[in-house]
Each structure stands twice: as C-alpha cells, then as structure tokens.
Amino acid sequence: QVQIVESGGGSVQPGGSLELSCAANGLTYRAYVMSWYRLVSGDDRELVASVGSNDGSRHYADSVKGRFSISIDSGKKTVYLQMNSLKSEDTAMYYCKVVATADRGEWYEYWGQGTQVTVSS
Prior knowledge:
Layout: E1 3-7, E2 10-12, E3 18-25, E4 31-41, E5 44-52, E6 58-60, E7 68-73, E8 78-83, E9 92-101, E10 107-111, E11 115-119
C-alpha cells in the first residue's frame, strides 16, 4: 500500500522561503512522476511543478518559474519543493501527487493530504 507523506508547510513573510517534502512510502514502481499542486479556488488544483523519476525532466507553472525548484531523491522516493521569494499569492494548500506506471503500462495515482503554506506580513 502506498502512503504519501507531506511535510514542510507553514507561515512565512513575503520574500521568505520554505521547503516542502513528499515521501511516497511503499512505492515499488520504477517509473513515476511526482508533482506538487495547490488549491486555487473551490476544488480547482493548479500544477505547480513536477519531476520525472527516469529522466529527471522538470516542469514549472509560469507563476513560479525562477522562484521554485523541484528535486527528487529516487532512492528515497521523495520529492522536494524549494520555494523562494514567496508572495502572498502563493498562499494555498499544497498537495503532492504521484503517478506511477507499472511494467505493463497500467498507471496508478496517489495524492497526499495536503500541507498549508501561508505567506503574510
């Protein structure tokens, strides 16, 4: 059974930094993409950043490019999101998502419970 464990949220002043981490405990698949989303309104989740386990390819939302950096430790099945120069509009609940692909092509999706990031003076 796969369990997604997030940590690192909190409160920070504008211009500050936070690092989020997400561990996919029990994940045995070798190919997967780990992503961070944030809740923007209602049930709408915005993709913030993602990274692939095989080639390390990264994708960022335009709103966070140059400020956020995503990295992965494949041995630990853990993804990190370093957030710098935080703005009030970065305030949101952040969720980790893991999409894993099995050898026969079927895929599985797992979500964490979320961690709150608040940027306020």
